[in-house]
UniProtKB/TrEMBL annotation:
Lineage: Bacteria, Bacillati, Actinomycetota, Actinomycetes, Micrococcales
Database matches in PANTHER family: ARABINOSE-BINDING PROTEIN-RELATED, DIACETYLCHITOBIOSE BINDING PROTEIN DASA
InterPro entries for this protein: Bact_solute-bd_prot1, SBP
Protein name in the entry: Raffinose/stachyose/melibiose transport system substrate-binding protein
Alphabetically ordered keywords of this record: Signal
Pfam family, one: SBP_bac_1
Gene3D superfamilies, A to Z: Periplasmic binding protein-like II
Signal peptide: 1-23
């Protein structure tokens, strides 16, 4: 059967796929306990908000562990659509029916909540924050006061996932060179298999794909430093070339890629209709839950000839924090939960249950694939550039690349024009070297 798909078949697959639930781990408490059971005082329910709709069942299991040790506190975990979450959260934090604790973004997208007085600083609330790595805390700091406004949740890495069965069926191996990467894409295309599951209808996903495929080409951390030092900007030839590479790789993506949603792309990959998925480490738990029989592999994309770097890299970033609402009516109980969210126990649950990289010291990774991704990141790290440094003003860098990439795929601009969209948009609030 042909695996080469279009927007229509992607949507049909999304409807048809039934997601299986993961079984509770051996360490999870027995189900069925009533809220507040065993409490010898006043029972309190904390509202905890998130943008990770994919993780609701898993977080429910994780918070069961906390509730078992704290029988007077029940955690009501609520997830909202990720594309709508920021606005919903801003409204909730300023009203009377918002969360007690919320997953909040990192870096620049955290700042409006800090500046609006919506979050409480946690430096004196969660002593364990002093043991976190500075790189993780940087995503949780207020830009002006340097205070920490969140317990770091996870570090995410960006790479290419692949379906090992499809690779084996077509005699393919992980690419060692750029020519290898192009050749395996051609082989899949000739076999009528969609090589890259990409959904560009959701603009936020486009810069993720761009960095997964081309971060080494434009220079990774070296390019970041050159921007910080004022030595270049986003019209740099290496950055323009990386955008051209993204365009060149469109032939390996689904037809009408700008009409394919991010969730469509997930389904194309988990259902075996596409061989590769350029995305984050945060996908692992969802992929394995959606298709428990799916055998996964990961690799870094080798840079093309003439790239700024001669070796592949893994982009990464601090992905979100647990923030304390300034208007919570349950301050003591919220602080108890936040303190637990900084413990190795919670961090290990994040690693084991969510398959994500916890910034909490002492966490280990039993999953071989997870350990492989972490090792690749440690060997050749790079920033997810537009997220880490370019969300501190309006418009944000990731939105600009999302718009630029969509126009690029539609043929409404070329690589240089896409770079201009990013540079011109950022120039409204950013000057290289400042």
């Amino acid at each position: 059967m042909s695996r080469r798909i279009t927007r229509a078949t992607a949507s049909a697959a999304l409807v048809a796929l039934t997601l299986g639930a993961c079984a509770p781990s051996a360490d999870s408490p027995e189900p069925g306990a009533a809220p507040g059971q065993g409490c010898d005082g006043d029972a309190v329910a904390l509202d905890v908000w998130s943008w990770r709709t994919e993780d609701v069942k898993t977080y429910d299991r994780i918070f069961d562990v906390f509730e078992e040790a704290n029988p007077c506190i029940t955690v009501n975990f609520q997830a909202h659509l990720n594309t709508e979450y920021d606005q919903i959260l801003r409204t909730g934090l300023t009203g009377s029916d918002g969360p007690d604790i919320a997953q909040v973004r990192s870096y620049g997208l955290l700042q409006p909540l800090v500046e609006g007085g919506n979050l409480e600083p946690l430096d004196d609330v969660v002593p364990a924050l002093g043991e976190f790595d500075d790189a993780a805390l940087d995503g949780a700091r207020g830009r002006e006061d340097g205070a920490v406004y969140g317990v770091p949740l996870a570090t995410q890495t960006i790479q290419v996932w692949y379906n090992t069965a499809i690779f084996e069926e077509n005699g393919l191996e992980e690419p060692e060179t750029w020519d290898d990467f192009v050749a395996l894409n051609d082989t899949l295309l000739e076999a009528d298999v969609t090589p890259l599951a990409v959904g560009a209808r959701d603009g936020w996903f486009v810069p993720t794909v761009h960095d997964a495929l081309t971060a080494a080409q434009y220079g990774g951390a070296d390019f970041q430093q050159a921007l910080r030092d004022g030595e270049t900007d986003f019209t740099d030839p290496a950055y323009v070339d990386s955008i051209q590479t993204l365009k060149d790789l469109q032939q390996y993506m689904p037809d009408d890629v700008t009409g394919v949603a991010y969730t469509d792309a997930q389904v194309l990959f988990t259902s075996g209709q596409a061989a590769m998925f350029a995305g984050g480490s945060y996908e692992q738990a969802f992929f394995q839950e959606a298709n428990p029989d799916l055998e996964l592999g990961v690799f870094q994309v080798p840079p093309p000839p003439g790239s700024a770097l001669d070796h592949p890299v893994t982009p990464g970033y601090a992905d979100g924090n647990w923030g304390l609402s300034a208007t919570t009516q349950h301050r003591a109980e919220s602080e108890t939960l936040l303190t637990w969210l900084a413990t190795p126990e919670f961090g290990q649950l994040v690693a084991d249950e969510l398959k994500q990289f916890s910034p909490i010291p002492g966490v280990e990774y039993a999953d071989p694939l997870q350990q492989e991704m972490w090792d690749l990141y440690q060997e050749n790290p790079a920033p997810y550039l537009l997220l880490v440094d370019y969300r501190y003003g309006d418009p944000v860098g990731t939105d600009l690349m999302g718009e630029a990439g969509q126009k690029l795929f539609l043929g409404d601009t070329d690589a240089a024009g896409a770079a201009d969209i990013v540079q011109d948009g950022l120039s409204a609030w950013w000057t290289p070297g400042e």
